[in-house]
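Recall the central idea of this unit: under ordinary conditions, the amino acid sequence of a chain determines the structure it adopts. In this exercise we apply that idea directly, starting from the sequence alone.
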Amino acid sequence: MEEQNFLVNKFLFFQEKSQDDYFYNALIYIFEHNKNGALGLIINKSLPIEEEKIFSSIGLQNISSNKSILNGGPVEVTKLFVLHDDASQKESISNVNGLCLTSSVDLLKDIGNGTNTCKYKLALGYCGWDAGQLDYEVSKNSWHIIDFNPLEIFNSEPEELISIISKTNGFDIDKIQHTDIITKH
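Accordingly, the structure predicted from this sequence is:
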């Protein structure tokens, strides 16, 4: 029996409007979602760390990248992930017509050396849900599900994505709110 991928290749926008919540205004891309749980990355929030520090930490000097690292989520916040568009990478989670995700240091080195010219973003941490947890949160309207071309995230600054997706969808996703929020992170 083939495993279902419920929200794979979709974006989730958190509808809670309390600035105290970790996911306040978070836009998450879902890489995996099945009967065992879900995995995604916050793609619209950056950390005050530049990629140059990451590349130099693995011995690659003189990499002139001032791109910031994404705050991928609250799980394993010290683990680095490479979000990319090179579906040929064997160690990656690859979604058809979507994004790829890996923690491979080899890909990171290839990017830094210029031997792989894929589009990419780096992230620390990820978002994870146990079996049925995301399904329950979606059923309670904690998340707004959004269709959007995921490859477009490489063309924009993370902080601009809410505005870009809103314009593409024809309504401001930041104005959607559900008052019966059950998710407390």
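The chain has a mean pLDDT of 86.
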